[in-house]
What we know:
single chain, 114 residues, mainly beta, Thrombin, subunit H, six-stranded antiparallel barrel, 1 helix, 6% helix
Amino acid sequence: MRLKRSDLVTVFLRKRIVGRDDELNETISYGDGQKLLMNVQPASGQVAAELYGDRLRYFVNAKYVGNAIKENCNELDGICLNAGPSDDPDYRIVSIYTYKDHLNLTLERIKQDG
């Protein structure tokens, strides 16, 4: 599968790091951003509407072609779609579908404090 170059958007993949604070509560931080080019589209369709309901507007589908993240990408890792590479991610990976030559990722917007 080849993606049209004019449809590609620069995003940054940030690996999720789970740590513990002084009281042994989980703390989530993110590693350095890895620059990727993806085709990103809003999630739509009857199946997506049944799965996500009213939250559908917070989901996008992304297609990625390449080998940079096939084995290093996990669900709940962060994606900086509308944020800079050093900012906290604004989306998290919900699901990854691996095909022969590309990945389909479903991303959910992360609620920001404030």
